[in-house]
Fold these 4 entries.
Entry 1:
Amino acid sequence: MSKLTSMALAVAQYVPDGSSVAIGLALEHLIPFAAGHEIIRQQRRNLTLIGPISDILFDQLIGAGCVEKVKAAWVGNVSEGLAHCYRRAIEQSIPRDLVTEEHSNFTIGLALLAASLGAPYIPTRTLLGSDIPRQNPTFRQQESPLDGTPLLLVPAVNPDITIIHVQRSDEDGNAHLWGNAGITEQAMLAARDVILVAEEIVSRDVILSDPNRVLGPSFKVRAVVHEPWGAHPSAVSGYYNRDHLFYHEYHTRTRTAEGFQNWLDEWVLNVPDRASYVAKLGEERVRSLDVKEHRYAAPVDYGY
Amino acid sequence: MDYTPRELMVVCAARQIHDGENVFVGMRLPLIAFALAKRTHAPNCIGIFEAGIVRDVPAAELLYTMGDAPNITGALWATNTMNVMGMLAAGDVHLGFIGGAEVDRYGNLNTSMIGDWKHPSVRLPGSGGAADIASLSQRLAIIMQHDRHRLRERVDFVTSPGYGYPNEQGPAGTTWRKRVGLPRGGPAALITTLGVFTFDPENGEALLQSYHPGTTIEKVQEQTGWKLRLAADCVETVPPSAQELKVIREYDPNGVWTG
């Protein structure tokens, strides 16, 4: 069954106001910026964002007023430093109040893993002695029933929707993701609904030729969106490199609320869709990020 | 010899890596320290990235983030975060590197918020993997800018636990870590723009091990928010060798991170 749809329809249908949205799960690459920008254009409100190191997509969604709560390990600009919108929201309630439940990369992964296993929580020894469990009211500390040692219990986090950018997918949502996955697999399995955004739509045969590379079960996927360059300015291994300069420009231009609004108008609100965004980037910039030298893996033999 | 403060910090960081160790690398200066150690005294060290990457050779190009495409090409293992964090939790990581906005005399780090938690005056990005690396690696090395408002008697928020604090149950140090339930570890080195500290595991206190060429113990004290204690053999930091600088500059020719 084809689940192929447009980004506008996928967001309209599966990301209602008030949803909890896991996004940016592979850390610094494969970040679904195109999906985030569509969420901003459709003026979603009161979202809960879930992620590990989310880079500037979280900052943009927060600055645009879409977000009520963040359950994340880190919100900033990875190659530049602090996130200005995140700071303004917490320090000055601009554009609105923001609640955070602090995590580390490990605990947000454990929370999604617990959900993916149907477990109420997962015990760990990380963060014992950190103030993070004191800040985040969802954590519990308890002695191990086995040996009495202290444990941190990380409760399951079930996203309403997980949005994932992949290299290639078929129309049904059978997808290949390569490179490091961060906590993508856990978030996919933990979610009620999944939107897959793919650089390329390929045939079912291509995906099933290498089942070990498949990200997860397509029955979790509700919508498949074909969106070339949909992860820009983050990298997509085998498709394009990270646009470091874009992060620098964003960092510089968003120091003030007015500067952010100006950036948002230019790169999101006045850009109707991803194709227009890529056109705006321009041929020269796009070419400078292209893969310089392809490195194909050796084929494997699934014969019998 | 001419070198930048960051080049010296990279050299100090590389010296923390022993041959054959599994190192949680992180980004920026530690990443270059890994490349330097690999090319000099620790050819068999392994670099682990929390995004889910394991490498035994540094990426072919300078990285801005661990998720840059060149860090995937030729990796020993491209996997997920839970597998590498699981190795960390299981005790397989010898050394972890982290940076911080604030550190205190017991090696506790803050990268979360300055001021009152409910109304912070500065909201920092948060833990990322830092709190996990501080909790679970066998040894921790901290790299940061040295100034008085960053090296404080006590940090406002303990994102990444070092040696804790003395309390009614006992002193700071390895016994504090055991009391709160951390399985191992603790800071082994605090590398700053002015010097290198080690820690006394008995009470968790930072000891100035060396001060960088061009500064003095007095100047380090001026920029440190607690009364310095000196290691018994506190000396001037050994400057980078020509070979070390050559490797650093080959890896970061434009001084993106080390300039």
Entry 2:
Amino acid sequence: MIGWIDTLLQGLLLGGLYALFAVGLSLMFGVMRLVNIAHGDFIVLAAFLAIGIALGVPAGPALLLAMVLPVMVVAGYGLQRGVLNRTLGKDILPPLLVTFGLSIIIQNVLLEVFSADSRGLSAGGLETQSLRIAGDLAIGWLPLITLLAALGLTFALEWLFGHTTLGRAFRATSDDPQAAELQGIDHRRVYALATAIAFAVVTVAGVFLALRTTVSPSDGPGYLLYAFEAVILGGLGSFWGTFAGALVLGVAQGIGFRLDPGWGILVGHLVFLAVLLVRPQGLFPRTRD
Amino acid sequence: MSALLATRGLTAFYGDFQALFGIDFEIHAGEAVAIIGANGAGKSTFLKTVTGLLAAPPDRIVFDGRAIGGMSAAAIVRQGIAMVPEGRRLFPSLSAEENLLIGGYTKRKGPWSLARVYELFPALKEVRALPGNALSGGQQQMVAIGRALLANPRLLICDEISLGLSPLVVTALYGTLPAMMREGLTVIVVEQDVGIAQRTTDRLYCFQEGRVSLQGRSSELARAAISAAYFGSGVAA
């Protein structure tokens, strides 16, 4: 019994990391209906930016995050204003093609600069420390902090969207960009702000990823898949739904790993497919869409 | 006195299709002007060009002494033009109150506040927490008008606010026009109901096939002349 409780806990903690992967994707899709194929690669890019800085500057994770965050936020804003806004329209293909191209470019640039070697960040010993709950049951501090960071970011985004003028502008633009323009909202600027915020989340995800495991330049598409599955599992239109979807995915993988070490990822995909078949709108959709 | 809004020889196109053919239009501060015309006459196209939703030559539209042709719709709202669009176009993911508040996004200074809009439309206070698309047609139109007022515009443009509403509701909505104008608003209404247009406005333009077919003081235009201009046998007065 204790083994299954441990599996459940470890699955939830893994889901915390997946939630960090997914909420940025959920944000961009929610506001712009833009599926960013390069989302996972941007997570890896943020991780490698932190790793690159750590190679030259002796800095802890918090300082690394503080250094990478503004770079990624400005990059996100600029990318949306300069490139992605031009791809948005009635045809959904241009943004898919452009972000697919970006994915390939990012992977190859990272390969050139960092080689194909897997690399990670040091958490200063935190990665091996754990919190004992009862008996043999313990959870790692780093996964716990990751889950709490995901919880905090999800709460912050829900609050931003639900209680601020910018959040209202995000939702209005998502509903009807032309009617939003008639309220004085420059929808292209709003899109750029949404991507900037999504890239802030991506940065947090990238740094936590590099702290928890090693990353290599070609890992991005895999993380995109987890993020995509979490968003669809949770249901579109709600960050809490995405968060819940990520936890479901983490637990499903955890159970799979417990049944057989080779089945973890597969069971996650199977649960995703099962939910898609039985409840295509996701587990916790928001009715506004 | 110079016009608050003036268009000179305004043309508009949808691709290769020309929808407006040299529209000369003006409205002075404090006036209420109606634009009438049959479906396809060019009324909505005219509003789209004025509000920046459709491209216009830069110097053909002048608002408050400034050429606004070619500006984005968002920039034109900042200049002081707000529109109540045809079909209301409320945001379904926003509550009624949030729909109102989004109207004040530009933070233009003026007499209109949320409290002032609730004074004008007390019925909205009861339903403020409901999603925009859960309101009745009349309530939705009140929200659309209140949303435009919260932009604190100098010029309010209403596109077919009576569409799909009962006569009682339409009368109530038009009954709020004097209160709005007392706050210094200038108003353009596009209206299919000629009777309402004549009763509630100072001047009237009739559009026909992308041209002005008749214009004059609303109270002085004979119904026969309006009918002729509306249905196609009129000439610009």
Entry 3:
Amino acid sequence: MKGYNFAYLDEQTKRMIRRAILKAVAIPGHQIPFASREMPLPYGWGTGGIQVTSAIIGPDDVLKVIDQGADDTTNAVSIRGFFGRVAGVRTTTHTAEASVIQTRHRIPETLLRPDQILVYQVPQPEPLYKLEPSRAATRRRHALAEYGEMHVRLYEDITRFGRVATAYDHPVMVNQRYLMSPSPIPAFDNPKMHRMPALQLFGAGREKRIYAVPPYTDVRSLDFEDHPFHPGRAPHCCELCGSTTSYLDEIIIDDKGGKMFACSDTDYCESNRSDAA
Amino acid sequence: MAYVAVKGGEAAISAAHSWLAEARRGARDVPALELAQIKEQLSRAVDRVMAEGALYDRDLAALAIAQAQGDLIEAAFLLRAYRTTLPRLIDTDPVDTGAMLISRRVSAIFKDLPGGQRLGPTTDYTHRLLDFSLETAGAAPAPVPAAAVESIEKMPRVTDLLGAESLIENDPSGDETPRDLTMEPVEHPAPRDVRLQGLARGDEGFLLALGYSTQRGYGQNHPFVGELRVGEVPVSIVPPELGFAIEIGDVMLTECQMVNQFGGSKTAPPQFTRGYGLCFGHADRKAMAMSLVDRAMRAAELGEDASAPAQSVEFVLSHCDNIEATGFVEHLKLPHHVDFQSELETIRAMRAEARETLKRAEALGALKRDETKRESETP
């Protein structure tokens, strides 16, 4: 795009971000502070993910952007359009065709490969912030691997509700060392992070943090032996493709209680339907 | 099918942008606003957008205000997003506010002082009566000649006068290069140079509320306006190939030196301490609020009890940026249905379990009632 560098950010900024990414990959699950830039999209819209994508994308990459699992949600459309405009890269909605996938709130149903990179948009990189709002204090907790409070919180949920009440952004332990926010993906997606062949990068623009899970790294959802982690989904099948294993959106279709369930991952759903046809 | 309703994001976005452009222009029979009018006649809005947008450019600020339909936070965001793409060519020399071409200068702690008090273009003593004569674009007000400014050297900063008697803490200028909070992530506890940068581009409303809270007892503070000055200062750079300073322009600044009580400590005798506010444009409110909050954040450094929100460096700096704040608050309107779905499933499961528990408890209660009944019926 005229007047702007390839993929919007200038090369110095990209280098700064790449250094943060390298550090993040070297210390899986550890949050690396970086000098996040103001982007032409608002904070909260995925500025962290956009900066990471901008720093790693090359002219030969094929980009897929999803929000809530879908390629056609407004924000996904907007971010895909942004990179189409400032980088001129090829974009796709097919998970298998993409080399870089930027996501908000979901991990694709299709298994990712070692030659793919999954970039998460992260609103709140600090998994402990509800227990301790000071980031200076939580940094100390991470340094000492002092995560007892989080276990106590989960335990309190179990005593009060009989189950862990966290349905999304369920904290994970990465490489047996750092407690990490998986970003607000549903607990259903957490197991997909464990030993994923693809590199997983996490960008939090407003909070100015980058972190990573290298390929084939252990990612365990926090739980107890007698209360194992429970990834939930709606107990239905997709009304469009019939999948009984995918994560489902519940769509209200009238004002008389009518609803239908359909795959949140639109690409997965469409390819299921074309396979059946 | 209903599911189709969630598709078509691309067409919807494009249509929304067209509608926005239409709404921005407003009724066609009203002449379009010219940027020069915004720059000249809405100059306080321009000042605020430059301060919070962290870019001194009156023309671009006027453009941003027009583009944002007068939404000043949105305008500041437009300016920031542009600023971030600009190359950093050189750092200027520190500006000398003592050499300011004063348009306004008031001190609340002395009745008169060298150089005198100068009200300048202030609303301070206007009566807030709607001026209906402005309803019709009338003739320009009759010009009134301003009182002549004595030489700038005769208008020293009040804090320098107090400093001569050591009544106020020394504020030595350091040689170290200040950190740049836009180029390095802020780490807490942030030093004062970073704090002042954050406050200078912080939200006026947020700083106003926090400064106000210190006056009402949330963080002890006994402030006096030592001096508030507004005017233009020259900006100089030293190009490496020249090796000496050249002036490249002037910027309008508001500076507030707040003077605060301090009881002294083991190492320092009782003396006044400083709270400092500096921002782009003519902005008494912003500079004063900033100086209150700056002083409040020095609590720990001065050995004072630091328990109020305004005294927490991390709290203030993490929340004073309105571009960050508005982004995160407003992002809640983006789709969150995947997370909501997981919450729905959890709450349904929890309700089902609660119903089961209730049913079991009721059944147990009924059983017990039956038992007691049988027992009482047994002769």
Entry 4:
Amino acid sequence: MTERLVVIGNGMASLRFLERLTERASGRFDVTCVGAEPVAAYNRVLLSSLLGGEVDEAACTFRGLDWYAAHGITLVTGAPVTVVDPGARIVQVGEGLVLPFERLVLAVGSVPIRLPKPGMDLPGVITFRDLADVAAIRKAAVAGARAVVIGGGLLGLEAAVGLRRLGVDTTLLHVMDRLMERQLDHAAAGLVRDAMEARGVRVRLRADTEAVEGEGRVERLRLTDGTVLPADLVVMSVGVRPSTALAAAAGLEVGRGIRVDDRLETSVPGIHALGECAEHRGVTYGLVEPAYEQAEILARHLCGEDAAYAGTTLSTSLKVSGLPVFSAGLVDVPEGAEAVTWSDPAAGLYRKLVIGDDRLVGAVFVGDVGEQGWCKTLIRTGDALAPGDRDDLMFGRAPPRPGAAHPLAA
Amino acid sequence: MNLHVPALGPEADPVRTTCPYCGVGCGVLARPDGQGGASVAGDPAHPANHGRLCSKGSTLGETLSLDDRVLHPAIAGRRVGWDEALDAVADGLRRTAEAHGPESVAFYLSGQLLTEDYYVANKLAKGFIGTPHVDTNSRLCMSSAVAAHRRAFGSDTVPGCYEDLDEADLLVLVGSNTAWCHPILFRRMLDARTKRGTKIVVIDPRRTQTGEEADLFLGLRPGTDTALFSGLLVHLSDHGALDARYIADHTAGFEPALERARQIAPDAAATARATGLGEAEVGTFFALFRATPRVVTAFSQGVNQSAQGTDKANAIINCHLATGRIGTPGTGPFSLTGQPNAMGGREVGGLANMLAAHMHFAPEEVDLVRRFWSAPRIITGEGLKAVPLFEAIERGKIKALWVMGTNPAVSMPRADRVRAALGRLDTFVVSEVAAGTDTVRARNAIVLPALAWGEKDGTVTNSERRITRQRTFLKAPGEARADWWILAQVGRRLGHAKQFAWPTVAAVFREHAALSEFENRGSRDFDIGGLADLSDAAYEAAAPVQWPLTRKAKAGERRLFASGGFYTRDRRARFVAVQKPALADATSDAFPLRLNTGRVRDHWHTLTRTGKSPRLSAHRAVPFVEIHPDDAARAGVADGDLARVRTPHGAAVLEVTVTPGAQAGMLFAPMHWSEANTSDGRVGALAQGAADPVSGQPELKATPASLTPEPYRSRGYLITRAAVPAPHGWWWARAIVEGGSGLIFASQEGAAEAALLMRELFPEAAFSEYADPARGVYRGAAFRDGRLLGALALAPAAERPSWEAAKAFFRTQELLEPPARRALISGRAESAGSGPLVCACHTVGLDVIRGAVADGARSVEAVGAACKAGTNCGSCIPEIRELLAAALAPSPA
């Protein structure tokens, strides 16, 4: 008899899991997938491009509804799950639909954080998380509009660039002294800032928002230092929080996220969690790559393979307005470790290798991310660096020495 | 920018002139490029070189910039007009002579001066100021050869000519790195080997590139040449190889000389013991010499720069006289002179032990010259030679000195003392071209701007007695004037208007020629009466000619003495009974090694000229010391390390080159570097002043020395567009690179200090920087608007970062694209680098030559066909041959 498998959430992690599962065990599970958004899983990574008008919505789609049908997956969209009952092995969708399960996968993602400051609920204050947010922002981003983006993380930068691309006067606020401080050191962040400003985005660091103000909708934003920034639109991008409410209500063990073991199983047998909602070995991830890795592991596990998840090396590889940026492992140099740097700000290039005990423990690249794969491997394996590796990681592997083929000798 | 003005239009024919470097005296065709430089080519019509030029000659065009030129007179650093400067010189000389006697005035001249300049200086000093203290840097160069010639021939006569090198069957090179120091003659020798199978024997304590090319290399112990040639004389005598008729008809003193030789080296075994050679190789050499009638023994500084240099040369000459191998095609002893006009200086008598025109101090000679010059204060005896001359300055006996065209603060033995002594002078005049020399900087001198090569006009004489014109093809820059003119102006100011009234340089030459034939009647070898009536136009057009050239002769003499006719009273040559060889100073526990000094292939003297050429500066960029592997191991130094070389006279810090070509116990260091281009590489300061008792030439090549490691934390290079002073505490050497000025350095600093230095050097710049502080590695480049301003690399000393790749990025002033910026900082070439320079003429690097060999080139000719290396001057051919041998050798099992 086929097992009934319910997947809550239809984001990128969920879809990758469904793909891997059906590749391996078509027909083994009776799968129902329930998504809160009105459309099937789409490419959230492209939201900023969509915002800036570089791509259209069609470019963001992954799988049509026919794919789900063809793989025997019952897809329910636009329907929030309201209750999970582990004892009864059912979930309740909306007011009426009840789905029994033998296995449950929670892929419910995260929710954007809103700053606990006055005025955050005014119309015109928008988060930047899903297609609906993009639509709202684009609607507000009329020509001549003034936008303030709060949050100098990856998503905030992308939102700001997208807005600027729409012709909106855009200011990016970040409370820290550098952009993307979790992924970048000061030098790299400086380059990213330069790139942002080159694109016309004003960047204010150490900018702590005191309140958003306006009569009936956003009119301005006030900083704690007294600065007032006129604004027709405030995009809130100060981070996400794993969605844990449903799991907590169901009695699952929850920390920052839904706690899972190396088989991505929660504290309740048969119930799994993956993606941004999951907390594995105390770590929650906000990026697509670990989510994909988890999806792969869980699919294999459910198909009976001996698969275990050991965590993902934290790495970021992205383009900020065309500027490639890569960050993996440690960003700041811990005691006893050393840094090797190459910095050419005028050329928009920066590389830092963090090396401890002759092993690569971190890397930050800006402008050219050529050796990122090798860096990730080295950080993951912890292999000792060979002589010459430092130079090769920094400048690429040297081309073979010309011997017979020298032009003058030809 | 300050540029030369060409003296002729671009459409004009090239100017025929003479190379200003070594004594080979190659003809050069020069054509100004209109941008301050000139293109140069060998003159096919010149008999010295038949169109060839060596690496130094080929790059003369790169040395003509007016950077670092003296362009106007100055007194103690204050710019003055010519009148004030000349008045100051005349007043200084007059006051000194009046207060302390004329002998408190001295002149120190140079083999770089033209004959006419030399003539006027000699006349002014010896006839009108009345001081005999006129010496020249030729004292350091070939005065032992001069003395040996005079002892043997009664005159300073080179008996043969360059054609003898073409026509000999055996060439014996003694103390001569001909391949590097007289490359064009060496090409002639190699051609002779190809054409007629000429054997080449090289006798040198150091296995130089010349030694590498030899059919037989005799690596004798330093200073034992006299024993070898004494043994040879005995061998020739004992094996019936003497020319009894020649000895009987044209010589005197054979028996005592042979007896002395027999005491020194009675047979081959004794010769081997005395020289440290194997008996078999000694025997091979003796037999070869005995059996080969056509033999030329060419000798250079290894013979001359010795406290027994005159004896060494006479031991050689003895063997030629004894076999009658002199003055006939393909034979003779042959002194290869080091400077372009050492011979011209000898001809005018510009040395302390000569009066004028190959005349000395016999009363009739003094009277002759006095009458010819109408000289009020003719001198009557020898003056002080270079070493005692500077000692007299140190002691305060000489109070006024005029240095012309030489850099004694670098090139003299015990150079630190010489430099200090200059500070004691009341009047110090320097006629110079280069502004930054250690001599100019040594004191607040009266500096007079002289003309440089390409600007000046006159004659020079090469090693085969050939007088050739040096001609003007660039206008005099700034206020620079001819040396003869400057001297004549001072002569007039001293009250001798009539005797210093020449209107043209040709008039000076005519007077010089007239003196040579004045009451000569065959009594003196030097007679160029045939040129005494040259019109200005004929002088301008004069073709190269050999002396003697008497008024009656149709052409100059190619060879002398085949039938005797020596310039002794009895017209017989003299055999010289030489002394048993012994070096001036013994080694000791404190100084267990011996320091030999010399030149490198692509540099000349104290770098004031070759140092301006990026190509010439590429071959050897830092001052170095060669050491045998065993000595290196004992001293605890490895190839590329820095080491402090000490002698009782001074110390220098040099880069170690470990080579089996060095004899155990011997060091070799080039003498080119000075305070102007290195922190700690003044090798002249290390050399002893012990001089040959006859010639007064100091023993520059065998000073007892020690060597100890000089560890530094980091090594690196700094290249900037314009020269910058090296930071305090660095060991450094400066070399010009294309589009910039480079410093190769060692320091106790790390990556952080390097990054700080870059910010000090380039306060407004944008930087591209690679830093690995934990490993002590830093590479940085400074840009303004995308254009490269400078680059610095620093690494742990053992890594010695090479600047070959980085140098390439300075060739252009254009924007550097990102791949180039990356390549510069990566320390890797953007495209394939060509490796360390081997062929300076065609700028071909080691890697390219290796590539050609890998592609199938199996001979020097094939390498040349593939990449042009070695096809011009050929001085890199020995290096190419070594590369071929290494590449083609069967790899050890």
